[in-house]
TrEMBL record:
This is YjzC-like protein. It comes from Paenibacillus typhae. It comes from the Bacteria. It holds the Pfam family YjzC.
Length: 65
């Protein structure tokens, strides 16, 4: 079983780093304009995203179109 890569409000950060919002459906046509970015430490709790269809993902794992 692999490591979880997307997180929701209330989840705890598994590692320190910069996390950004990504769309739930990662399609070329659903790019997010001005996604929120946050810096987290291990164990910090993820805040709410800009809308309910987004999740948090570590920047180096986030797909860039």
């Amino acid at each position: 079983m692999g490591e979880q890569t997307e997180y929701e409000k209330g989840d705890r950060a598994p590692n320190p780093g910069v996390y950004t919002e990504v769309g739930e459906a990662r399609s070329f046509h659903t790019q997010i304009q001005n996604p929120k970015r946050i810096t987290m430490e291990k164990g910090d709790i993820f805040p709410e995203t800009t809308n309910k269809d987004r999740k948090w993902k570590k920047v180096e794992k986030a797909r860039v179109h």
